[in-house]
Write a structure and sequence with these properties.
Elements lengths: L5 E8 L8 E8 L4 E5 L6 H8 L7 E6 L2 E2 L5 H11 E5 L10 H11 L4 H14 L15 H13 L5 E5 L7 H16 L4 E5 L2 H7 L2 E6 L2 E7 L5
Parallel strand pairs: 3-8, 3-9, 6-7, 7-8
Antiparallel strand pairs: 1-2, 1-4, 4-5, 9-10
Helix pairs in contact: 3-4, 3-5, 5-6
The structure holds adenosine-5'-diphosphate and magnesium ion.
Magnesium ion binds next to helix 1.
Length: 230
C-alpha cells in the first residue's frame, strides 16, 4: 500500500484547565481520499486540522503527513513543510486584500522560490481552470464570496500540495456559491487530489466525500466510506 497522506496516532491535545480538545485520536488517510470531518461546534475539528498542518503541536501522540513527522518540526521547518505539502482553505478566505487576485495566487510559489515567469503561468492556468481569470487584476474586495473562495482554492493548489485542507469552506457562502465550491472539490477529487474538509454542511459531506469521519468531544465516533454522488 502507498504511504498514507495523513497518519495520526494516539493524538491528544490539551489546553490548560479544559477537557482534552482532542482525545487519543488515530486516523489514517490514503492518497486520493476525500474525507469530510463532521461534528458539532467545539468538538475538536479545527484543532485536528491545525495539528495536521503543523500549526499546532499535540500534547501526546504523533502526526505524520506525507511521510514527515510534523509534530517534531520547529517553526521554520513547519512553515517550509506547509508551503511544500499543504494547501489550506478557510471559511473567510484569508486573502490579502491589498494584493490583486493574481498576486494572492502567486504568493505561495514565490515564497517557495519558484521562478517568477513559471509561477505567473501556473497562477493564470489555475485562475482559468477555476473560471475566475477575468478577475486576475482585481482586488479581492471587489469579488463575491464564491469568487473569493475560488481564489483561495487556486492559491491553495499553487504549490501542488499533497493535501488540501479546508475548514468550513462553504460556511460563509450562499447556497449557489457553496454549490460551486462543492462542484470544484468534486473535480479536484476526480483529479486525484487528497482532500480533508471540516464542515457542518451535510450536503458537502454527501456530495464530495468518499469518507465521513464524525467527531464529538475530541473523539472519533464514526468513520464511514461513502459514495460520491456527483
Ligand atoms: N487556543 C485555545 N485555548 C484553549 N482552548 C481552546 C483553544 N482552541 C480551541 N480550544 C478548545 O478546544 C475545543 C475544540 O475546539 P475546536 O477545535 O476549535 O472545535 P471545532 O473546530 O470543532 O469547533 C473547544 O472546547 C475549544 O474551546
Ligand atoms: Mg472550527
Amino acid at each position: 500500500m502507498s504511504t498514507p497522506v495523513i497518519e495520526l496516532s494516539g493524538v491528544s491535545r490539551r489546553y490548560e484547565d479544559g477537557p482534552a480538545a482532542l482525545d487519543e485520536v488515530s486516523l489514517t488517510v490514503h492518497p486520493g481520499e476525500s474525507v469530510a470531518i463532521l461534528g458539532p461546534s467545539g468538538s475538536g475539528k479545527s484543532t485536528m486540522l491545525n495539528l495536521i498542518a503543523g500549526l499546532d503541536r499535540p500534547s501526546t501522540g504523533t502526526v505524520t503527513v506525507d511521510g514527515v513527522r510534523v509534530d517534531t518540526l520547529g517553526e521554520a521547518g513547519s512553515a517550509r513543510f506547509r508551503r511544500a505539502k499543504i494547501g489550506m482553505v478557510f471559511q473567510f478566505f484569508n486573502l490579502l486584500d491589498d494584493l490583486t487576485v493574481a498576486d494572492n495566487v502567486v504568493l505561495p510559489a514565490e515564497m517557495a522560490g519558484m521562478a517568477r515567469g513559471a509561477a505567473r503561468r501556473r497562477a493564470a492556468g489555475l485562475l482559468d481552470a477555476l473560471g475566475i481569470e477575468r478577475h486576475a487584476k482585481a482586488y479581492p474586495g471587489r469579488l463575491s464570496g464564491g469568487e473569493r473562495q475560488r481564489v483561495a482554492v487556486a492559491r491553495a493548489l499553487m504549490n501542488r500540495p499533497a493535501l488540501l485542507l479546508a475548514d468550513e469552506p462553504t460556511g460563509a457562502l450562499d447556497s449557489a456559491s457553496g454549490a460551486d465550491v462543492k462542484a470544484l472539490f468534486n473535480e479536484l477529487h476526480a483529479d486525484g487530489q487528497t482532500i480533508v474538509t471540516v464542515t457542518h454542511d451535510l450536503t458537502l459531506a454527501r456530495s464530495c466525500a468518499t469518507r465521513t469521519v464524525k467527531i464529538a468531544d475530541g473523539r472519533i465516533t464514526a468513520d464511514h466510506r461513502t459514495a460520491v454522488a456527483g
